[in-house]
Amino acid sequence: METSLVSTTGEDRDDERLPLVSSSPLRPSSPSTTDDEIHLWQPPEPQPATASIASPPPDTRPAKSPRLVSLDVFRGLTVAIMILVDDAGGAFPSINHAPWFGVTLADYVMPSFLFIIGVSIALVFKKISSKSSATKKVIIRTIKLFVLGLIIQGGFFHGHNNLTYGVDIDRIRLFGVLQRIAIGYFLAAISEIWLIRNVSVDSAISFVRKYYLQWAVAAIVSMLYIGLLLGLYVPDWEFQVQSKNFTNVRTNGTLLVQCGVRGSLDPPCNAVGLVDRFVLGQNHLYMHPVYKRTKECSVNSPDYGPLPSGAPVWCSAPFDPEGLLSTMMAAVTCFVGLFFGHIIIHYKVSGQYLLQQFNLFLACKLLMYQTLIVILLLGMPFSKPLYSVSYMFLTAGVSGFALIFIYFMVDIIKFTAPLVIFQWMGMNALIVFILAASEIFPIFLQGFYWHSPSNNLVSLTEAALQKICNSKRWGTLAFVLLEVLFWGLVAGVLHIKGIYYKL
To answer: Where is composition skewed (Low complexity) in this entry (predicted)?
Structure first.
């Protein structure tokens, strides 16, 4: 049986790339042969000067470097948290995305993915034999990721508990999670290929000299984002309300949102929405934005609910949380991941040396958080839908601390057994994301029912657990934890069989 290999971050080395389709089975004990994105390069051992005539010729192939298991664990943990907050967020609104301002558990998922992408890029492109060839691979992978995201989140699949099929091309959603990852990956990977100076790193100064052009790009992107966010004038704008898509809408037709402001960070009149409406068009934005859970738009806030009396008209307006302008700032998180990846590459991986270099990590984090405090004092609060600069600093910093902690636990003291499910999920994160986090597999199962659409395996299992727990909320949580365990075991079976899906 043929094995498909798909990767999201361009993990193949130029000189060791595996075919997309391989007819020979992969050895379960050597996942490193299929996923090079998380390997630390080590120079091959020197060959002896003389050798016996009867001795076989020396193996001149590059030595395989140990796998950085912590990155797998971190990626798998992020996917598991994504499943948890998406499927249990309705029962526990406190872990669901913040309605507009603020940060919850769910709001750390996307930055963690972007941070991991950055770390992976640094490890993958540490040795480049051909910049043009590497650039071509990056472009191809970017297109694949973007198209895959368009298919998954563009409306081609019916929703959870909503067995309807078909998509209106005029209203297809153009941006989403994978599209944002694709753009961040592209910018970070291209900068890693073309902007790294040929400088030997033997000190902090040489480290800065080698990578300062990348940091300059990240700073320019950040300043451009801030300039557009605070400088663009947002005029009044109109949108169409379709009664079939929204509940409790008081009128159909065109509604006017009154703005006429500059520098607003509120839901109706910010520059992020202005850019998306102008470039993408309102029909191609997300129709159920998170601000529908604000107090102005929901009687059940911070959960979804009916519109309260006197709700503003913008409560029914579209807004894309993964739009163009916010994706610019999100891409900077990939550059922060690049920085951490470079640290991993240039410093020894021993427990004692890690503790010695922890001061370097801590100093960088303190600088980030000092900058964060200044930004907060200047009036830029945390906002995941806007991907504000303060939100970027906070979540990227937390991702960095998380990676350091997991790295110490997993790669240094070898505390791996309790985390093996997350490791498996991380090694096949793309397939788990598509089938589980994007609900493709549950949706498929729901399509098979007995007499009534509600009599399907997914709904009946969740209802049974709610009855056993004598609580709808805790039964839902039990169902989601069972779902995470199921996908962890599926990823484990794929690992045992040597199957790793990459793009």
So the answer is: 19-32
SS3 (DSSP) at 188: helix
What tokens appear for 175 in the block? 């941006």
- Which one-letter DSSP state was computed for residue 99? S
Whole-model pTM?
A: 0.81
Report pLDDT for 244: 43
> Would you list the DSSP string of 1-70?
--EE---SS----TTSPPPSEESSPPPTT-GGGT--TTB---PPPPPPS---TTSPPP--SPPPPPB-HH
pLDDT (tens digit per residue) in 17-76: 333 333 344 444 444 443 444 444 444 455 554 444 444 555 444 444 556 788 999 999
C-alpha 232 chain-centroid distance: 28
pLDDT of residue 67: 67
CB count within 10 Å of CB 495 equals: 20
Q: Output the 3-class SS for 251-320.
A: CCEEEEECCCEECCCCCCCCHHHHHHHHHCCHHHCCCCCHHHHCCCCCCCCCCCCCCCCCCCHHHHCCCC
Q: What end-to-end distance do the CA atoms of the chain give, in Å?
A: 19
What Å distances lie between residue 498 and 72, 301, 305, 346, 486, CA to CA? 15, 46, 46, 30, 18
Rounded to 5 degrees, what angle do the CA atoms 330, 138, 322 make?
Answer: 25
Q: Which amino acid is at 38?
A: I
The number of beta carbons lying within 10 Å of the beta carbon of residue 183 is 22
Q: What are phi and psi of 378, to 5 degrees?
A: -80, 0
Could you identify the residue written with the tokens 């499910």? 421
Q: Convert 152-172 to b/e letters by CB count within 10 Å (16 or more is b).
A: bbbbebbeeeeeeeeeeeebe
Non-local (6+) Cβ contacts of 110 within 8 A are 177, 180, 330, 384
305 and 160 in contact (C-beta within 8 Å)? no
Determine the residue type at 111. Answer: P
pLDDT value of residue 366: 66
Closest Cα to residue 386, out of 293, 206, 264, 246? Answer: 264
The residue type of 234 is V
**Cα 462 from Cα 90, distance rounded (Å):** 14
Residues 455-481 pLDDT 10s: 888 888 888 898 998 888 899 999 999
Contact partners, residue 182, CB within 8 Å, separation at least 6: 141, 142, 143, 145, 146, 149
Query: Are the C-beta atoms of 210 and 122 separated by less than 8 Å?
Result: no
